[in-house]
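Hi D.,

Good news: the full-assembly prediction came through. Inputs first.
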Amino acid sequence: MKYIDEYRDGALARSIAETIAREALPNRHYRFMEFCGGHTHAISRYGIEDLLPSNVEMVHGPGCPVCVLPVGRIDDAIRLAMRPEVTLCTYADLMRVPASGGASLMKAKAAGADIRMIYSPMDAVLIAEAEPARHVAFFAIGFETTTPSTALAVGLARRKQLANFSVFCNHVLTPPAIRAILDTASLPEIERVLIDGFVGPAHVSTVIGTTPYVALAAEFEKPVVVAGFEPLDVVQAILMLVRQVNQGRSDVENQYIRAVATEGNLIAQAEIAEIFELREMFEWRGLGELPMSALRLRKAHAQFDAERRFDIVPIPAADNPACECGDVLRGLKKPADCKLFGTVCSPETPMGSCMVSPEGACAAHWTYGRFRDRARASTAQAAA
Amino acid sequence: MSPPRLRARKLDIRNGLVDLSHGAGGRASAQLIDEIFREAFDNPLLNQGNDQAAFDVAAGRMVMSTDGYVIWPLFFPGGDIGSLSVHGTINDVAMAGAQPLYLAASYIIEEGFPLADLQRIALSMGRAASEAGVAIVTGDTKVVERGKADGVFISTTGVGVVPPGIELSGDRARPGDCVILSGSIGDHGVAVMSKRSNLGFETELLSDSAALHGLVADMVRAAGPSLRLLRDPTRGGLAATLNEIAQQSRCGFLIEESSIPVRPEVAAACELLGLDPLNVANEGKLVAIAGPEAADSLLAVMRSHPLGRQAAVIGEVTTDDHRFVQMTTSFGGGRIVDWLAGEQLPRIC
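Then the structure:
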């Protein structure tokens, strides 16, 4: 396929991989975090790990919107969907995310809730228009990538003067999450993630640009290379990170110049600013309560805000205590380190959100990479 | 003077709708069967008008398979629920290496379903069956109230005969056997998805829905006992099929991504929808596992058959206690090819 195959060229990948192996200093270990689930997926899907030398290690980050959504918000969405007058529209990824007490949107749908899977928030607006007797609530999630389309949907609903449409807003922001990963000075040593640099967000950066990472890179002295989601993008970004580390630089570089401008997409930013404002505090799974890390609808658009219309008051809910999604999301643990992984937790019966979304670290490792655990286990056994 | 003959008015197929009386077993039912199904399927066994079909069979092993069809939309590029219900069941019978002989068809129709659509579906079934040389010899029709079904659901059952000496089964794959795929994957799933209103993309792509027993007969003749098993990768796609076989045969697979044919329009649609062609349904493709000695002769007969032109060896059976289906990606790394968790798209067949 034109303009896709070029970014999946195996011969070129091998040549970049050889350069990485040549330039990576044999006496040091490189640990890079790919922030986005899209990168996690590409690394697993194309087997990029097999192309890297053993001293270049990738650590999965928290950039999977489904994964970082805390259980309480799923509970809220289920309660919303169970209201007889409400039709809840959601991206399919969310359907199987475990909620409190073994519930999920999928189970709520089977129990009679009117939950519909859609591909675009615009579909939810059209459903609201077509079914005026229903209240159509859109379960909005995602980083800055998906926020503009939610903003456009609210704008469209306003222009159509729809009284039966609202958004249950869970949009979160990338830079505060990166800060939360890096700002570990106050944490005990065991909870500090050791990383040498970031493969920076792809689609998020098309919206916000590369500037928001500059202060983070400088403050924490970690290089950031914004990279696309194709496998060659990732491999090239890893080479760029190795070079920055070797040269002692902590710059923000842009590998994804075909899509990302330094200042981002100003029109999309304006749309977001028009509809949304910052929340003082928002809970993230794994990262806890982070200040100024999420969005809600502005008061001027309160009529489209499901939280205001239905008085949704957050009820704290705990993760399954044995689930290690939190540590996986912070890069402290790898999926196979969790004792639930592959035993009671699998994509068919997920215990934690990281096993649900295809972008989740556990789902990606289970679906594409778990054969390597066996190789690792036998190497460890041989060494012992 | 002979008594006046009772002449029922013909069904108004152009404007009429199925109503509850068409399933009640009375005259209206008989008329629906006569004017729509018997017209479309026309064959001596059906025309006897019995509740069953009685026929002679050759000595040997028989095969029987049944399948329900709930696909939506009912009409899609390259086929419809009628032709699919013939091809799908013929293929399930054929994957035993059998010659399919007869089909039975059962309908659950929703009140209010247009007679014109029902006739179109029946004619398509009749055409598919006659092209395949397999007669639809008995059937049943039920009508349920509006809202209790969605248009029409069809269930077909097929019987066939296996030639002597052929024993194909999912537990017969052995390490070192080769894996052959008959052609490009994902055509059916993508063609159907393109017609789902909420997905909104257009493609010229047609479903690959086809009866594979002719191809199977050629393969059985060419490979004889070296042919271990056949399976058609329908729901769940090639990925599900290989995983099923790995479980049944207690083996693993190693396949090469670059050897698996995928049409550019399928690759593009999957890219857009975030799908993997390995998980997308097919209705006219088969996977063959055979001893390596038969690979060349199998490929030769497959490629000379219209439904196997793109046949390729895509990998081999491995020894693996974990029963992993592994793949070398075109990019150069390794990965697992797993079952798809959850439902990719409901009602694909």
